[in-house]
Amino acid sequence: MRAPGNGGTINQPAAPRQNLPPARKASAAGVLNAAPLYNGSMPELPEVEIIARGVHARVRGDRIVEAWFGSRREPFKTPPDRQAAGLEGRVFLGVHRAGKHIVCDLGDCGPEPSPGPASEPSAGRATVGAQTQCSVRPAAQWIVHLGMTGRLLVTVPGAPVAAHTHVRLLLASSRELRFVDPRRFGRVEFRDLGHGAGFRATGAEPLAIGAEEFAALFGGRRLAIKAALLNQRLLAGVGNIYADESLFRAGIRPRRRAGRLTRNELERLRVELRTVLEHAIRMGGSSVSDYVDADGLPGFFQLEHCVYLRTGLACPRCQTPIRRILVAGRGTHYCPRCQR
User: Fold this and answer.
1) Number of alpha carbons in the 13 Å side-chain half-sphere of residue 313
2) 3-state secondary structure at position 101
3) What confidence tens digit (pLDDT) does each residue in 24-65 have?
């Protein structure tokens, strides 16, 4: 598990970014060089989705040549030696989000057969890259939770290594996949699917849940609706930012009991939650702390926050000052006039 070459956390985009706000197309150097603002905000569903998509686009089909792990034990749910043994030689089949986790599906690959009739891919096999033929079914998974300050970055060869780099995966393309986490609240885990089940989020998917399931999820519950939205066993991936923003847009006070919301209110909340999450993904997420995507670019949805971190500022609808309270131990922002 030696350190593979000289890599780093200064990213170069693999290709020009499309359909982004103008500021997202600017250089990310200012963000990468700025001091992190540790305000307790954790990447939520949109931020994790964006990173997963970016990593998928850049590493799919690439082989892991070497795996290096740092000496800090906190980020490793699976011992580093087991992770290295399981990762090296495997190929990225795909990367996706599950709740607030990034799941890398890994395939077992062998040398590509010699040309001829016998070289046709057999059932359940797929060619990845120029030299390998891999099973289309994952043989293993590498799972990343970003915690509060984690970054998963695809780097160019020769870029300098940042402090707090805990994992470096050298790829056959000569790029590196890096996990960087100053506060070490993030976690990385390896699963051999031949000896256990794959990773699944515990709660329902907010971007796919239907009206009936959503209503059943909260019906009869005595806890505050804000607390219910944050419960990862109910909904996977929703955090403080998007709970506050969706409750504002749905006109619902965060302390109201979930079980007392009407069917119409729950449906309004479901629709607004999905709308907010999808729009945040299009805007690149919310960079209210040190979040950047797989290219090192910040998000811009924070420019459209209506209530989150806007204590004392005017409500964009009625001009009433935004209030901050605690719900389930979390700072919660709402408009006392627009939300009932």
Assistant:
1) 10
2) strand
3) 433 333 222 222 322 345 688 998 999 999 999 999 999 999
> Tens of pLDDT along 246-293?
999 999 999 999 999 999 999 999 999 999 999 999 887 765 555 555
* C-alpha to C-alpha distance for 316 and 289, rounded to whole angstroms: 23
pLDDT, residue 249, reads: 97
Kind and range of the H or E run holding 271: helix 263-282
Rg of the chain (C-alpha set): 22
The residues that are catalytic are: 43-44, 100, 330
- Chain centroid to Cα 334, Å, comes to 26
In angstroms, rounded to a whole number, what is the distance separating the alpha carbons of residues 207 and 127?
A: 32
Asked whether the beta carbons of 69 and 76 are under 8 A apart, the reply is yes
- Would you state the torsion angle of the CA atoms of residues 39, 11, 150, 59, taken in this order, to the nearest 10 degrees? 150
**pTM of the complete model:** 0.79
All domains in the chain, ordered by first residue: 22-192 (3.20.190.10), 211-236+238-334 (1.10.8.50)
Contact 126, 133 (CB under 8 A): yes
First to last CA, the chain: 57
42: nearest Cα among 131, 150, 123: 150
